[in-house]
Amino acid sequence: MSIIKEVKGVLHLEEVALPAVAEKFATPCYVYSRAAITANWQAFSEQLFNENSEAPHKVCFAVKANSNLAVLQVLAELGAGFDVVSGGEIARVLRAGGEPANIVFSGVAKSDAEIRYALTQDIGQFNVESDAELERISEIASAMNTTARISLRVNPDVDAKTHPYIATGLEDNKFGIPMQNALTTYQRAAVLPGIEIVGADCHIGSQLTELEPFLAALERMLALVDTLEENGITLRHIDMGGGLGVTYTDEQPPQVAEYIQAMLKRLQDYPHLALYLEPGRAIVANAGVLLTRVEYLKFNGHKHFIMVDAGMNDLLRPALYQAHHNIVNVETNSSTAAITGDVVGPVCETGDFLGQNRTLKVRSGDLLAVKSAGAYGFTMSSNYNTRPKPAEVMIDGAQMHLVRARETLEDVWRGETLIPSTSLK
Ligand SMILES: Cc1ncc(COP(=O)(O)O)c(C=O)c1O
Ligand SMILES: N[C@@H](CCCC[NH3+])C(=O)O
């Protein structure tokens, strides 16, 4: 869903003019649209939760994409489940009103404390990523006199055809249990105390723009389901992870309906199996922008630089994955000539850019919007260069809610202490 509208030369999110947000909350600043998050969620829920479906399908929002409490609250109120990867993310979901039973817990290195916390909160299931983790969950659950519901996260060895840093389902990746070992690990899980097998899980990567890798992974997972069945292990659901891509520039990922219907069609032969999904990016990426202001323009004789007040510490994706985010003027600027140059931040790194080779009509003081910044934006931000993290604002119709205040310097160095002074002798 396109959330940004131009009204008389000024960009709006829902009914709010973006310059008003910048004026009130300063820049840089993340701005999210509640309506867009809701619509993106509904695209999933309409496919999975309709009158024709009786299977208890679940959509578990991948919290790592955007863990702002208000974002989680909006989704919890819509009935979302949550895919988490840390004890901290479990705590956030609970704080935002999410149901423990709707939480699935992924991650390759869950600590004792995290496992204990998840069991205490009685979360829906652990997505177990190794034999060693399975043994540890069994020990802890047994000692706590409880049972952990588990799925094994299996690595289906499918090429997701995405950036290598965000492909997770290849043999070489650290994620999941190799498919050829899955039966043995399930058989072990079946006899371990404190363990209840409920499903199987995979996640092959992020920002997938083709349907084919999802369907290839599904085939491999269903072959595993058959093998398990032959060996007396019956699953209740199959979790196909997240990964559906979005349009940053001209990508044409499958529509949510097409993606889900293709999987449901294949699952018709398995009426007892519910489908779980873990979308992150598809729910929030295009529901948010990063607002930033131009500080200076510089021309070094052969190249233009547009220096803005947001850097790689605020939005890491361009530096880390050479990701392309469209960058646009918030107010039409007709009085200035266009320049082509790199949009760079204040951080002392050559890789600190938000966009390269962009053509914009800009002057110092102009407001820019970095689009599609709602996923893996704020959640990947840092305090590098002692830069306070930006504010986050949720737009809801004509209202703007500050849902996270910009950090102060005290926030940035909280917990640090000085050592007693040493005097020179
Ligand atoms: C286990 C797991 N589930 C879900 C997701 C969400 O992925 P996406 O944001 O691409 O939907 C990820 C991130 O790649 C993940 O690692
Ligand atoms: N952080 C990545 C997505 C990775 C998802 C984690 N498995 C991105 O910004 O595209």
UniProtKB/TrEMBL annotation:
<dbReference type="GO" id="GO:0030170">
    <property type="term" value="F:pyridoxal phosphate binding"/>
</dbReference>
<keyword id="KW-0456">Lyase</keyword>
<feature type="binding site">
    <location>
        <position position="243"/>
    </location>
    <ligand>
        <name>pyridoxal 5'-phosphate</name>
    </ligand>
</feature>
<dbReference type="InterPro" id="IPR009006">
    <property type="entry name" value="Ala_racemase/Decarboxylase_C"/>
</dbReference>
<keyword id="KW-0663">Pyridoxal phosphate</keyword>
<comment type="pathway">
    <text>Amino-acid biosynthesis; L-lysine biosynthesis via DAP pathway; L-lysine from DL-2,6-diaminopimelate: step 1/1.</text>
</comment>
<keyword id="KW-0457">Lysine biosynthesis</keyword>
<feature type="domain" description="Orn/DAP/Arg decarboxylase 2 C-terminal">
    <location>
        <begin position="29"/>
        <end position="374"/>
    </location>
</feature>
<feature type="active site" description="Proton donor">
    <location>
        <position position="348"/>
    </location>
</feature>
<dbReference type="Pfam" id="PF02784">
    <property type="entry name" value="Orn_Arg_deC_N"/>
</dbReference>
<feature type="modified residue" description="N6-(pyridoxal phosphate)lysine">
    <location>
        <position position="64"/>
    </location>
</feature>
<protein>
    <recommendedName>
        <fullName>Diaminopimelate decarboxylase</fullName>
        <ecNumber>4.1.1.20</ecNumber>
    </recommendedName>
</protein>
<dbReference type="Pfam" id="PF00278">
    <property type="entry name" value="Orn_DAP_Arg_deC"/>
</dbReference>
<comment type="function">
    <text>Specifically catalyzes the decarboxylation of meso-diaminopimelate (meso-DAP) to L-lysine.</text>
</comment>
<dbReference type="InterPro" id="IPR022653">
    <property type="entry name" value="De-COase2_pyr-phos_BS"/>
</dbReference>
<dbReference type="InterPro" id="IPR022657">
    <property type="entry name" value="De-COase2_CS"/>
</dbReference>
<dbReference type="InterPro" id="IPR029066">
    <property type="entry name" value="PLP-binding_barrel"/>
</dbReference>
<keyword id="KW-0210">Decarboxylase</keyword>
<feature type="binding site">
    <location>
        <position position="321"/>
    </location>
    <ligand>
        <name>substrate</name>
    </ligand>
</feature>
<feature type="binding site">
    <location>
        <position position="349"/>
    </location>
    <ligand>
        <name>substrate</name>
    </ligand>
</feature>
<dbReference type="InterPro" id="IPR022644">
    <property type="entry name" value="De-COase2_N"/>
</dbReference>
<dbReference type="InterPro" id="IPR000183">
    <property type="entry name" value="Orn/DAP/Arg_de-COase"/>
</dbReference>
<comment type="subunit">
    <text>Homodimer.</text>
</comment>
<dbReference type="InterPro" id="IPR022643">
    <property type="entry name" value="De-COase2_C"/>
</dbReference>
<feature type="binding site">
    <location>
        <begin position="278"/>
        <end position="281"/>
    </location>
    <ligand>
        <name>pyridoxal 5'-phosphate</name>
    </ligand>
</feature>
<keyword id="KW-0028">Amino-acid biosynthesis</keyword>
<feature type="binding site">
    <location>
        <position position="376"/>
    </location>
    <ligand>
        <name>substrate</name>
    </ligand>
</feature>
<dbReference type="InterPro" id="IPR002986">
    <property type="entry name" value="DAP_deCOOHase_LysA"/>
</dbReference>
<dbReference type="GO" id="GO:0009089">
    <property type="term" value="P:lysine biosynthetic process via diaminopimelate"/>
</dbReference>
<feature type="domain" description="Orn/DAP/Arg decarboxylase 2 N-terminal">
    <location>
        <begin position="36"/>
        <end position="285"/>
    </location>
</feature>
<comment type="similarity">
    <text>Belongs to the Orn/Lys/Arg decarboxylase class-II family. LysA subfamily.</text>
</comment>
<feature type="binding site">
    <location>
        <position position="281"/>
    </location>
    <ligand>
        <name>substrate</name>
    </ligand>
</feature>
<feature type="binding site">
    <location>
        <position position="376"/>
    </location>
    <ligand>
        <name>pyridoxal 5'-phosphate</name>
    </ligand>
</feature>
<feature type="binding site">
    <location>
        <position position="317"/>
    </location>
    <ligand>
        <name>substrate</name>
    </ligand>
</feature>
<dbReference type="GO" id="GO:0008836">
    <property type="term" value="F:diaminopimelate decarboxylase activity"/>
</dbReference>
